[in-house]
Amino acid sequence: MMARKRMSLDITKQINDWPYEPGQINVRLISGDDGRPKIQMRVDLGILQMETEGRPDGVRPEGYESLLEMHEDRLDAHVGEHGSDDDFSLDQEACRHLRDEAVQYYHRYISLLVLEDYEGVVRDTSRNLRLLDFCGTYAESDQDRAMLEQFRPYLTMMRARALAGQALEAGEAKAAMAALDDGLEQIRVHFDETGHAEEFESASEAALLREMRDSLAPKLPISAREELRKRLERAIMQENYELAAILRDELKMTQE
To answer: Under 8 Å CB-to-CB from 155, ≥6 apart: which residues?
Structure first.
């Protein structure tokens, strides 16, 4: 009886057929053997493959879409039983697993941005922002509560970029500008609330959104410029001089 030929698990050919390019996010969308689309990211040591929906690795922990959904359901059950979220908490192991899961979503949303799937980026960044809030509220240790908070400006920036991208695809320059302004304001609030207000102006996330906003401002219709003037007047009346300065710069850009 002839021995059956063993199927090779070596992926050298696939790696060699798709060279790694340092300094770039190398991403492609393929059709999987199951007929569903898959995202592949070329990294220096090989290829990462992710599902386009649900948890990126395709795992469903205890039947849930993700660990976050599982713990959110635990919280709902706790509140249903006790009438409040008092005494509900996440231990260090749970927080570590949630952080590991967040990294999977990070890899996917930066891939989706390259693929210009803005809806997917909004979905995944919103999901990770929800995770930050969840751990920040319910983690047992101060370290676990604070560990993910450092990524809030980046997540906020990526979400704002995607929302602006969606709006521009729909021909809504005004809505794109509003998404960028809202992202900037959320980042400013983050630095204020964490006691680092002075870092807002130099933050790379804020700088990127300002750059996008500056390139977009000249495309605004006249009606949107008038709205900017009204917002500037309100900001001055409310003595919000930081916002007034931003709006004044936007008006200058629209008049060039």
So the answer is: 125, 128, 129, 132
pLDDT tens for each residue of 36-66? 999 999 999 999 999 999 999 999 999 999 9
Say which residue the tokens 């930066």 belong to: 110
Distance CA 203, CA 153 (A): 9
Q: Which long-range contacts (CB under 8 A, 24 or more apart) does 82-90 make?
A: 85/138, 88/138, 89/138, 89/139, 89/140, 90/134, 90/135, 90/138, 90/139, 90/140, 90/144
d(CA 112, CA 120): 6
How far is 167 from 177, CA to CA, in rounded Å? Answer: 9
Side chain identity, residue 118: Y
Q: pLDDT digits over 82-115, tens only?
A: 999 999 999 999 999 999 999 999 999 999 999 9
Rounded-to-integer distance, Cα 135 and Cα 149, Å:
9
